[in-house]
Write a structure and sequence with these properties.
Number of helices: 5
Distance between the termini: 28 Å
Number of domains: 1
Structural class: mainly alpha
Strand content: under 5%
Largest sheet: none
Shape: globular
């Protein structure tokens, strides 16, 4: 996987996380609390594509919002309204 592919996946994850948060009508702070994070700044960096998510966080999001890790991570799976 090239660096460019990695950046695309990071940005796609951020886009999906952002759309999920908006669909659930949560602020960054509310989502951070729901996921057991002490600060919302990490989520902000994820949404903007500046950081890569940890495996633990991907699993927490998957379990908390009842969605597959494939949906969150694979770029072949488009953001679907019915999934949110």
């Amino acid at each position: 996987m090239s660096s460019n592919d990695s950046n695309n996946i990071t940005q796609l994850f951020g886009d999906k996380l952002y759309k999920l948060r908006l669909a659930k009508k949560l602020t960054l702070q509310q989502m951070a609390i729901k996921l057991g994070l002490t600060s919302h700044s990490y989520l902000s960096e994820l949404e903007s594509g500046k950081k890569k998510p940890s495996i633990d966080l991907v699993l927490k999001i998957s379990r908390t919002f009842n969605m597959s890790t494939d949906y969150l991570l694979k770029d072949e799976i488009e953001i679907e309204e019915n999934y949110l």
